[in-house]
Amino acid sequence: MSSWEYRKMNTAPNNCILFGGRREGVQQSLFRETTQGKDAFKAGCVLDAGRHGSDSSSSSEHGGPGKRPPPLSPPFPPPLQDHACVRDEAVHRDARPELRPTSSHKSRALDCKICERFATIKSASLIQEHEQDSELREQMSGYKRMRRQHQKQLIALENRLKAEMDEHRLRLQKEVETHANNTYIELERLAKRHTVHTDKEIKAATAEEKRIQQQIIAQQKKELTTFVDNQKKEYRLCKDKIKEEMNEDPSTPKEEKQERLSRHKETVQRSQAEDEAHLLDQQRLVYDRSCRALKRRTLVKRHEFEQEQMREELNKKKTQKEMEQALMIRQDESTQELEHRQLQTLQRLRVELILLQHQTELENQEEYNGRRQRELHRKHALEQRQQPQNLKMLEMQIKKQFQDTCKVQNKQYKALRNHQLEVSPKSEHKAILKSLKEEQTRKLAVLAEQYEQSINEMMASQAMRLEEEQEGECQALKQQLQQEMELLDAYQSKTKAQTEAQHERELQMLEQKVSLCRAHLEQKIEEELASLQKERTERIKQLFERQEREMDAFDAESARLGFGSLGSLDFPKEDER
């Protein structure tokens, strides 16, 4: 797997898991402030409803609708947390007339806008938000640096493995070239040795032929000498025998004896000359036949020597080819082992980097979870600390509304009193004033009781609502963080599964590649062995055919010269001379 595929596989969706949630926290903060403002508005509406009820009852008691008091202005929103919340409240502000801020609220917003003109004036919340952004950016940059470092490590390992494989292939190529050169040198040396042996055999055959010829000549000379000596002995014996026969007959004249002796001498000499000529012819025939047989034997030895040299050369070529094939198989096995080892090294590093990345992601997520929980805890603690102040301000607003309502009712009662005094006789003025005073006192007491009850209900509801909201925020944050952790775990499991599947595919591809290369190598070995066997068969066949032609031609020439079978002749050896 290349580094590009690894970068593609490990893209940045986990950044949303690691560094998300900040916007949700701000939205929850704005939602809580808006909810508090609405709660305060509801409390004011309750007071307003109670006041309207008392006013309506008062007006009905005094006969007719009369003048209704003006509606109460809504209470102030909760105290501002920081200056940045003014803009958010301006965005989420309700457009209804009864929810518009009071003059003090507007003055605070104006003060915030004035403060925003100064770059150096920042609230603690803005500083904290800026620090969080800096932490997130630093965390993201560190994550990116880690990813780039992992990519660099993978690329460096791939380059190192590629260089190692190139060096391995170059070494194998040098081994094959060295073996080919050694094979060529050994075959050349064998050819030279065969040439030298052939020359030696030719010289030895020539020397042997001369030796045997000399032996035959010497033997024939010895036979001729013995034959001549025997003829001389026979001649002397015959001569002595004839002389004895002639001496036994003394009546034979001397001339007749001489003539008879001369005639016998000529007959014996002619007979001996014929026998000697016949012996010389036989010796010459034996010599020629022996020389021919010797040449045939030399030819047979040369053929055997050529066969032996051919067999040695072919065996040498076969041995060299087997060594070359064994070298190729050993190189293929070493290449397979190196490829498997390199793949295991690359996959091991990839798994280690993925585990390190997952560990970093998990640590960042845990750090993010802890930071979110700490921020929520600080926020809740701040809300708890600010709750008495907020409740006091709401209580002051309700009391101010009560005072304004009392003033309005005083004005209404004064107007009603003046009207009653004007339309009633003077004698009834005292009773009317007394009844109006009692009615006003009763109404104010009821109104005060309603306002006091509203304040108690508002405080109880605000405290309960704050606890419920904080508990809901904790549960929501816990659920959100749990969901984000589950998403991170699912993403990491998916990444591990993809990596394992990729490793399995790479291993299968390597096995297929190895099997294909081994099949090609075995096919190449079989083809080379078949070619070598074919060459061996053809060369042996050509050698036998040539030798057979030479032997047939030699035998035909021998038959033409009158020699019969020459294979049964026996020649004396060198140590028998």
UniProtKB/TrEMBL annotation:
GO CC term (a single one): cytoplasm
Positions of region (Disordered): 48-82, 242-274
Keywords: ATP-binding, Cell membrane, Coiled coil, Cytoplasm, DNA damage, Kinase, Membrane, Nucleotide-binding, Serine/threonine-protein kinase, Transferase
Keyword Lyase: no
Localization in the cell: Cell membrane; Cytoplasm
Signal peptide: none
Membrane topology classification: Peripheral membrane protein
Biased composition (Pro residues): 67-80
UniProt GO BP: DNA damage response; regulation of cytoskeleton organization
Residues in coiled coil: 140-178, 300-327, 437-494
Major enzyme class: transferase
UniProt-recorded Gene Ontology molecular function terms: ATP binding; protein serine/threonine kinase activity
EC nos: 2.7.11.1
Catalytic activity: L-seryl-[protein] + ATP = O-phospho-L-seryl-[protein] + ADP + H(+); L-threonyl-[protein] + ATP = O-phospho-L-threonyl-[protein] + ADP + H(+)
Family: Belongs to the protein kinase superfamily. STE Ser/Thr protein kinase family. STE20 subfamily.
Protein name: non-specific serine/threonine protein kinase
